[in-house]
Write a structure and sequence with these properties.
It is built from 17 helices and 27 strands. A five-stranded mixed β-sheet has the order 1-15-11-12-13, covered by helices on one side. Helix 3 links the parallel strand 5 (58-62) and strand 6. Helix 13 packs parallel to helix 17. The termini are far apart. 51% of the residues are buried.
Length: 561
């Protein structure tokens, strides 16, 4: 499924890969990659040296990190945000502390947006990276995020996840200083079979690269004939998981599918074609044959600890015994793991299934899960299932399409946009429980258990399709490639279900504050959505009543100082 080619290659005209080329040196041809085209355009030195000093186009933070970032910047002389800075409230980790502290953080974020000119996204409206995909990305741009999974390369926008200190530097108009990175060509071929999803491909990629560190601090550049076979949500699902390979960032070629993404978000001007130059050099290559990809499961305690679901079914006791032994080495006598007990009559039973977050809660994932579970039931035993659409627009779209009803009728609990299951702030399994999740990570106690207190539950990562197949089978771990379900027609977002709601005459400067809601914009002068004259407003909420023909979803507060 995944082949590592550990030497440099040239890509000619975007189609032919060869080991040697006489016309350009590797250093010269590396400048023709998409990666270097974007990095050089953001390097304030404007040179082609081995050092880069980068200024980003926008930044993203969530409510675990933005308080410390803004407080530090304030103490260092911050007067206003010099670039668009979106603050989402999708983690809510302080809920467990008790008292008012969680919402106090949110009030602080809103006040900072008002004072310094930022973008504030209230709780349960969108997870951080989906908000960026919907509202912030632009082809050729760079976004810095205080979250490890800041990855938007599949939409033509390089994303980098860093510690809060680097975001403070950008707020103070300093630079992100790095050595010029190596670039890895990720060459996609073939077409995924029915039942295979983005997490299957991503888990295989992480399995092939993580342990050796072969792509550490390098940029993954995706190209090849297989790209056109993948819808946007599929690409996003692979891209978001590149963090787990330890790479620095990622970027993809852009095509008509990406153009369509920007069109349905009513931002066609933010699309542009990205492709390598006629002769581009890559420091290594990864070939992925999508047509041979199998349904995967990443076992505790890392996304790289992966086998195919068929391999697990063939030797469940042997594989799960090794996980128990690993837990013993990690935690000693603090916990007593009984994972092999999940094997009954040769079948592995899970206790919980979760589809959530920036990787799992996509429209396409939920649509496929709904198709698999339609007319079925998850049963009334120990197995439970929850799904978290990754934004309000995604939730509305799956509701309008009847997907939500299919999932609920099968016994799945639908929840709002929230990152909790990815880091232990929601749906914590029982002690010794096995949870299968389409989320980004399955590190020890990432799901919320406390090994130091004798608690340990275990998480295995699977694609939403196989989670749905497992749910339909009463919790018996099942590959979606082994079940029959209707082939979906192309059900994507339309402008009626997924629109930016920002009127043409309203420009969103860096001092704008966005409050996401189910209402949209209306000119306060003429009460129409498209007005040629809009006078400056001061802290004014612009609203458009919800229309059956146009599902608008934002209220924009334009702040003038």
């Amino acid at each position: 499924m995944v082949e590592l080619i550990n030497h440099g290659v040239y890509l000619l005209n975007g189609t032919k890969v060869c080991d040697n080329y006489e016309g350009l040196t590797p250093d010269e041809a590396r400048e023709n990659t998409i990666t270097y085209g974007i990095l050089r355009s953001h390097d304030v030195d404007g040179s082609k040296g081995k050092k880069m000093r980068i200024r980003f186009d926008a930044m993203m933070s969530h409510d675990i990190t933005y308080v410390g970032i803004i407080q530090t910047a304030r103490a260092s002389g911050l007067e206003e945000f010099p670039l668009p800075y979106a603050m989402t409230n999708c983690h809510n980790s302080l809920c467990a502390v008790g008292g008012t502290i969680n919402e106090d953080d949110h009030v602080f974020g809103l006040s900072a947006a008002k004072k310094y000119g930022g973008i504030y996204v209230p709780a349960n409206q969108a997870v951080i990276h989906q908000y960026a995909r919907e509202m912030m990305v632009k082809c050729g741009n760079m976004i810095l995020g205080s979250d490890s999974h800041t990855r938007y390369g599949s939409l033509g926008n390089m994303g980098v996840g860093e510690g809060g200190g680097e975001l403070v530097k950008q707020l103070l108009k300093n630079t992100w200083d790095i050595n010029a990175p190596e670039v890895v060509l990720v060459w996609l071929e073939g077409k995924p079979k029915k039942g295979v999803g983005p997490h299957d491909v991503a888990i295989s990629l992480v399995k092939a690269t993580f342990e050796s560190g072969v792509v550490k601090n390098k940029v993954l550049e995706f190209a090849g004939p297989g790209v056109k076979e993948l819808p946007i949500d599929f690409r996003n699902g692979i891209d978001i998981m590149t963090t787990e390979t330890t790479c620095l960032s990622s970027i993809w070629i852009t095509d008509e599918e990406v153009k369509h993404h920007y069109e349905i978000h009513e931002r066609p001007q933010d699309f542009k074609e990205l492709k390598p130059g006629d002769v581009a050099y890559y420091d290594m290559m990864i070939r992925i044959d999508l047509s041979s990809q199998e349904a995967m499961i990443a076992l505790p305690f890392h996304p790289s600890n992966a086998v195919t679901i068929h391999e697990l079914q063939a030797d469940p006791v042997g594989i799960l015994t090794r996980i128990e032994e690993d837990a013993k080495k990690r935690f000693g006598d603090k916990v007593d793991v009984h994972l092999v007990d999940k094997v009954v009559d040769g079948k592995v039973y899970a206790d919980q299934g979760i589809i959530a977050g920036c990787s799992g809660g996509t429209y396409d994932n939920l649509a496929e899960a709904g198709a698999i579970l339609k007319g079925k039931s998850i049963g009334n035993d120990y197995f439970t299932a929850s799904a978290y659409p990754q934004s309000t627009p995604v939730s509305m779209a799956v509701t309008r399409e009847g997907i939500t009803a299919d999932l609920i009728e099968a016994g799945v609990v639908m929840k709002p946009a929230f990152c909790g299951p990815c880091f232990g702030a929601g749906d914590v399994p029982s002690n010794n429980g096995l949870s299968i999740r389409h989320t980004t990570r399955n590190f020890p106690n990432r799901e919320g258990s406390k090994p130091g207190q004798g608690q340990l539950s275990l998480v295995a990562l699977m694609d939403a399709r196989s989670i749905a197949a497992t749910a339909a089978n009463g919790g018996v771990i099942t590959a979606a490639t082994d079940v029959e379900y209707p082939t979906l027609t192309t059900r994507r977002y339309t402008s009626a279900a997924f629109t930016t709601a920002t009127a043409d005459h309203v420009q969103k400067p860096s001092c704008a504050m966005v409050r996401t809601s189910r209402t949209g914009l209306q000119c306060m002068q003429c009460r129409r959505t498209c007005c040629s004259s809009l006078q400056p407003l001061s802290t004014t909420r612009l609203q458009l009543p919800t229309s059956s023909s146009r599902l608008v979803r934002q209220a924009l507060t334009v702040l003038t100082r």
